[in-house]
């Protein structure tokens, strides 16, 4: 297949305790994140990322509570049955450099190829450039234009 034309930063659940069971058991996406060095205060970047991840986890829990209630289940159904400890959260920041697709031979490439997200819930914030497409059940692709200040779930 065609390669993805993206670059990104990946962050998992931040756990600073080497004795934490998920660290001892080497559970993926749990532990100390490797934050890149930035021109500004490195601790500020770390704080912004971890604060955002906490807010997104809280939003995800609220959405799952609403989903449980809509299914006539107890509002804590998913917390009790799937998130007994910390959920596995992954926060990714992507850049899709236009220069990649403008290189000779790359004219028909994309940022990310067709895929299905894994896990229970995905929260996606688009920029104003767009480009996201969603595949419907009858194999038709439609554009999902960005809506300001809105997450796709």
UniProtKB/TrEMBL annotation:
The keyword Metal-binding applies. GO terms for molecular function: metal ion binding; oxidoreductase activity. Residues 93-152 form the Isopenicillin N synthase-like Fe(2+) 2OG dioxygenase domain. The keyword Ligase does not apply. Keywords: Iron, Metal-binding, Oxidoreductase. It comes from the Eukaryota. InterPro entries: IPNS-like_FE2OG_OXY, IPNS-like_sf. Belongs to the iron/ascorbate-dependent oxidoreductase family. This is Isopenicillin N synthase-like Fe(2+) 2OG dioxygenase domain-containing protein. It comes from Rotaria magnacalcarata.
């Amino acid at each position: 297949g065609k390669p993805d034309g993206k670059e990104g930063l990946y962050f998992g659940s931040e756990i600073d305790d080497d004795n934490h069971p998920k660290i001892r058991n080497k559970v993926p996406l749990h532990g100390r994140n490797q934050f890149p060095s930035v021109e500004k205060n490195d601790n500020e970047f770390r704080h912004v990322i971890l604060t955002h991840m906490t807010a997104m986890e809280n939003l995800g829990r609220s959405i799952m509570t609403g989903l449980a209630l809509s299914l006539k289940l107890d509002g804590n159904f998913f917390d009790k049955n799937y998130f007994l400890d910390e959920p596995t959260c992954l926060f990714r920041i992507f850049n899709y450099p236009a220069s990649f697709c403008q290189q000779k031979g790359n004219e028909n490439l994309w940022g990310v190829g067709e895929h299905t997200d894994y896990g229970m819930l995905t929260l996606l914030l688009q920029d104003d450039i767009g480009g996201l497409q969603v595949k419907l059940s009858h194999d038709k692709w439609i554009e999902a234009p960005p809506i300001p200040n809105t997450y796709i779930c």
